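Hey all, quick one. A colleague (J.T.) asked me to put the fe (ii) ion job into the tracker so the inputs and the structure tokens live in one place instead of scattered across chat threads. No bug as far as I know, just bookkeeping. Sequence used:
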Amino acid sequence: MSANTETGNVTTLPTSVERLALDEAGLDAAKRSLDQGAVVPSYGPWREDIIKLLNDALATEIVCIMRYKRHHFTAKGLSSPKIAEEFLVHAQEETAHGDQIAERIVQLGGEPDFSPATLLSRSHADYDDSTDLKAMIKANLIAERVAIEAYTQMIHLIGDKDSTTRRMLEGILSQEQEHADELSDWMTDN
Ligand SMILES: [Fe+2]
Ligand SMILES: [Fe+2]
């Protein structure tokens, strides 16, 4: 009988299909290199690339913290104290994102790069020191949209190569989408 032919209710699988079986060599390799902590051989050549992507995301989060803090303190005297307070809430949430990313970099055996000398050149989003509330909201919306695009691309790139990092990025992405939604509402209200 040919492979993949239905016999009554039973489907015979073709023998040539690769079956679901673990790679024993990978399990043996995991028992060695204990100095690498949580990093096991299945990360393969992707580990360094993922650390680089995460360090650029860390730089982006730090620039976003600085921009939101600047806007929080300078928007206070303007017409909408409520938005000034919301800028602070966003700064705190970007801080939490940066902390999660730095922690994951260390888990992957990398070094989180907090160097102020290269922050802006590594960040995907820009700093902004506008003095007008509407310009602040617009600059933040642009930065959030850039962050959403960067995280979406990272999630696609990482795919199933590192599910822990991917899940973390998915959580951060959904919060950036909330930020963009709020800013977009304020754009129309102000
Ligand atoms: Fe963020
Ligand atoms: Fe954000």
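Adding what we noticed when we looked at it: The pocket of fe (ii) ion (ligand 2) is lined by residues 64, 90, 94, 144, 147, 176, 179 (CB under 6 Å). The radius of gyration is 23 Å.
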